[in-house]
Amino acid sequence: YEDNRRLKGREFRPIIYNAIINKQILEITYEKFTGERFTCAVHPYLLKQYNERWFLFCFFPEAGISHFNLPLDRIVDTPKAVGYYVEDIPSDYRDYFKDIVGVTRLSGVEPRKIYIGVSDINTWGRVISKPLKTLAVESVYDKEKDYGRVSMTVIPNMEFYMKILSLGEHVAIESEPERTEMSSIIQRILNEYK
């Protein structure tokens, strides 16, 4: 797997992994990007890597959040074991990631079938050879029209939009309202370059 050796918090992986195996409650001090810190006691159940970053998914009993997501790079002190928990992994956790790109699941948003057009044979090759989640080929690449189409059934989150942007200039979302949202993101990026 990819490993970002400069990533903050990577040294906590063995501690967290062992806590998952041993069903230990961890006390974690976390710092938001705004600088605000808080300490919470969580029941860890999954370490997940995405985009060269590590994330801890856990149950946060105090807040009643069953899929609490903590990026390891924002944990500021060594997590401490403060007790044991009874197995409380949410029954849906195996399906939790099936219709999202990355790690962010937006609450109250249902998965949507989103169509994506590709207008370059080399980009088509990259899209097909390293497909995004739930990618389905809707059409064979037509060399005469220089066009192919894929679809995804996902909850559109920021990771989804960033992944589509990373595919480059020959990829366009066709479905609304995602196309309008992508256009807005691109406009904000363009404004940064003015």
Count of extended strands: 9
Main sheet? 5 strands, antiparallel
For the biggest β-sheet, the strand order reads 4-3-2-1-5
The portion of residues forming beta strands comes to 25-35%
Assembly state of the chains shown: single chain
Backbone CA Rg: 20 Å
Number of helices: 4
Helix content: 10-25%
Report the order of strands and helices. HEEEEEEHEEHEH
What's the average pLDDT? 88
Poorly predicted runs of 5 or more residues: none
Note the gap between the termini: 38 Å
Structure classification: alpha+beta
Shape: elongated
Relevant terms:
alpha+beta; four-stranded antiparallel beta sheet; 194 residues; single chain; 4 helices
Can you give a write-up of this model?
With 194 residues, the protein is α+β, with helices and mostly antiparallel strands. It has helices at residues 13-22, 121-129, 158-166, 178-192; strands spanning 24-31, 37-50, 53-60, 65-71, 80-84, 112-118, 136-142, 147-154, 171-173. The longest helix is centred in the C-terminal third of the chain and has 15 residues, at 178-192. The model has no long low-confidence stretch (mean pLDDT 88).
